[in-house]
Write a structure and sequence with these properties.
single chain; DNA Binding (I), subunit A; 187 residues; 20% helix; alpha+beta; 2 domains; two-stranded antiparallel ribbon
């Protein structure tokens, strides 16, 4: 297995001493500055995958290479053992519904989608995971301020409360591969 090395910096205002952080399964997560990288390393939460060869930090008694790539040793789990539900947001609704209108399966993106209250607010419907679905503008206008039954419309699938891992995994699968982001794999 090769090592992923960054060829550019993604952190706003970052410098050439930034450190790439990988998940426990070697997925790129983000860049951190060298101070945060040292804190994570010395706390034992990460292991160093690669060091900068020409960048050092000197202390009174020691000289340390600055990590260029670190990896979390283990996945952080919820203490209760239960999966945490995802934050309710427009973007997460779109992810939960796989970027499709839940009435006609039209492909949607962040710019061309609306969300629909299955039970309209005017009829006591709430704005929550189980009453909101991704919807194209045409279907939203067709349904209007009516229930599914009165509008003679059907849902493709019932809405549900996704857990944060599902939303995270769906968001990762929509991101480009490391090669497309400017990373290169060393053999």
């Amino acid at each position: 297995m090769g090592v992923i090395l960054p060829t550019y910096r993604r952190r706003e205002g970052g410098d050439d001493m930034d450190t790439l952080v990988l998940s426990a399964v070697y997925q790129p997560m983000r860049y951190v500055d060298w101070k945060e990288a040292f804190c994570l390393w010395f706390s034992g939460r990460v292991e160093v995958v690669e060091f900068h060869t020409d960048k050092f930090i000197n202390t009174v008694s020691e000289k340390f290479n600055i990590p260029s790539i670190i990896r979390f040793i283990k996945r952080v789990n919820n203490k209760s053992g239960k999966s945490k539900s995802a934050k309710f947001s427009r973007a997460n609704i779109l992810l939960r519904d796989n970027g499709e209108c839940q009435y006609c399966r039209t492909k949607l993106d962040k710019k061309n989608f609306t969300f629909d209250h299955i039970i309209p607010v005017s009829q006591g419907g709430k704005t929550n995971w189980k009453n909101i679905v991704s919807c194209c503008k045409e279907c939203n206008q067709k349904k209007g301020n009516r229930t599914l039954l009165s509008a003679s419309m059907r849902l493709i699938k019932e809405p549900y409360v996704p857990d944060s891992y599902e939303i995270y995994n769906k968001s990762i699968s929509k991101r480009p591969f490391p090669e497309e982001l400017g990373f290169r794999l060393l053999q």
